[in-house]
Amino acid sequence: MGNRFLKGAMILSISMFATKFLGILYVIPFQQLVGASGMALYNYAYTPYALFISLSTLGIPVGIAKFVSKYNAAKEYDTARTMFRYASWFMIALGCVGFLTMYNMAPWYANVVLAGQSELANTVEDVTMAIQTISFALLIIPVMAIFRGFFQGNQNMVPTSVSQFVEQVVRIVFILVGSYYIIHIKGGTAKEAVGFSVFSAFLAGITAFLILYYYWRKNVKQYNQLLNETVSHEPRNFGNLFTELIAYAIPFAILGLATNLFQIVDQTTYNHYMLKSGLDGVIVEDSYGMYAGSLYKIIMIPVSFAISFGQPLIPELTYHLTEGNMKSVRKNLMLAIQLTCFITVPAVVGMALLSEPIFIMFFNSSVKGYNAMGGDIFRLGSLLGLFMALYSIVTAILQGIGKQWNGIIFLVLSLGIKYLGNVLLIPIFKTDGATMATMISYTFCIVMSLVVIQRETKFKVANLIRRLVAIFVFTGVMALVVVGVKFILDLFMNYQVHHMLSYLYVGIAGLFGVIVYFGLAWYFDLIETLFGTKFSLKRLKGRIVRRR
After folding, report:
1. Taken in order 362, 367, 370, 372, is the CA torsion positive or negative?
2. Which residue of 121, 184, 191, 449 is most buried, as measured by CB atoms within 10 A?
């Protein structure tokens, strides 16, 4: 745990896990309040919002983190501080532009999303209202993000972690309390509740910014002391520095848009091609809510670990590259990939095996056939988590080693693959077709990125594969145990009839899976290996023989 990257990743992991877990828990009562069509309306607003957040920040927060890390390593603390100040004003202006653009484009986008279909539960006016309401958050989120980037560049992950967690808690409180008041006390509609719920992003953003400002005031003396330790250097041209920052930031913004861009492709093709297959309009929209809303909230829990590894990884790799320490670069990128797979692989496999009871546990529906449909969507969709997690890590590595433009080329090509995949696969496989198209697109990006990373860093592929094989083997054993436990539970526990039994069903099967997986990882020293101990097949064989 002495590794600085690992410490930062662990701090962010705890925060992001708690944040994402809360993000799932609130969906249960929220969906009961607003219904499936309300959830679809909520997702119609959040997908373009996430896209505009990325466009309104242009990746500058992570660009600042990389910039600050680089110039701190060179002892040019004044250069890092100056750029932070100017970038803050730039982000305020960018947020205003993003707000005005999203607000005014809402009617056009609403028409595109609904594909001119009048039989859907939500109208163009409803979607326009939700998008325009959430756009106000763009006024505060960009400048808030720049503070997080500065803290991360100084290897301080606590402000980001605390502010993200509190932001989520405040947002959820506003969503649930506000929705309950509007529907059950005021006597309003679910659509009005959704409107207030999306506005909570703005209210929560203000709260998070105040927390970040508190940490800034708390640490500003330390940062001022660093200014006094600045080494002599040639005067820096602001225009050149800003160009350098943008060169870091824009690629990150584009690469970070992958999931949002794939979802945009889904939003503009899913309803159209599902309706062409002959399905009822209400079922199509509700299935979209399950796929783009409920599913993604679940799989973002394991994916959040990859994101938490990626955020400190970029400045860390930049720091070591500035020092010319390639050994540390290889060590940290290998560790990030291994830790991502160690957490994500068993998680997504377990979710796939328990797809229907997990759906019932979080999103139980009284509509006949909806629980089974949700379980079917979750079964294959859960595996998307692994692809999203690996993509997050390999693109972070590309940016850390300065090869982000390669990632952009791969992403552009993958969008064409995604669109073609939706057109060809959705009419045949329905929702699974959209899932498969996304998997194929991510696979293309991941494989091509790893080729570039290996070429630039010369990390040993054999060492990585050897450790990943152990993870997949242990996951396979875990899967067999979970299947066996499910077979036994199915004999006397019908979670489909009694909703509350789904909690017990998932808890028992999940507990066995966790014990088996982590027990194997501990027994064969894989856990220890991830923290630096050598792992080899010879040692693995010796351990088995010795235990016999």
Report:
1. positive
2. 449
Distances in Å between the Cα of 458 and the Cα atoms of 141, 338, 529 are: 38, 17, 21
For the chain, how are helix, strand and coil distributed in percent, rounded to 5? 85, 0, 15
Tokens of 380: 């294959």
CA 472 to each of CA 222, 258, 335, 478: distance values in angstroms, whole numbers, following the listed order: 45, 26, 16, 10
Would you state the structure tokens that stand for residue 453, as one six-digit string? Answer: 């990373």
If we measure between CA atoms, which residue out of 144, 96, 155 comes closest to residue 320? 155
pLDDT tens across 284-342, in order?
Answer: 878 888 888 788 878 887 787 666 665 566 666 666 666 677 777 787 788 788 888 88
Q: Does the global pTM surpass 0.70?
A: yes
Nearest CA to 311 among 467, 489, 155?
155
What is the C-alpha separation between 529 and 535, in angstroms, rounded?
A: 6
Are the C-beta atoms of 431 and 379 separated by less than 8 Å? no
* Cα–Cα nearest to 150, from 259, 37, 226: 226
Domain coordinates in residue numbering, the chain: 4-459, 461-548
Selected residue with higher pLDDT from 515 and 220: 515
What is the C-alpha separation between 13 and 429, in angstroms, rounded?
A: 35
List, for residues 448-484, the tens digit of each pLDDT value. Answer: 999 998 888 888 888 888 878 999 999 999 999 999 9
pLDDT tens-place string over residues 117-166: 655 677 888 889 999 999 999 999 888 888 988 888 887 878 888 888 89
20 touches 301 (CB < 8 A): yes
Q: Is the dihedral of CA 288, 289, 295, 301 positive or negative?
A: positive
156: which 2 tokens? 């301080």
Angle (CA) 394-400-402 rounded to 5° is 105
DSSP character string of 495-509: TTTSTTHHHHHHHHH
CA angle 477, 478, 481 (to 5 degrees): 90
Task: Please give the pLDDT value at position 522.
Answer: 87
Distance CA 439, CA 418 (A): 9
Q: What is the mean pLDDT of residues 524-537?
A: 63
State the residue for tokens 């100017």.
Answer: 86
Measured CA to CA, the distance from residue 192 to residue 38 in angstroms comes to 10
> In b/e form, how buried is each residue of 281-295, taking b as 16+ CB within 10 angstroms?
eebbbbbbbbbbbbb
Q: Which residues lie closer than 8 Å to 36 by C-beta, 6 or more apart?
A: 285, 286, 289, 290, 365, 367, 370
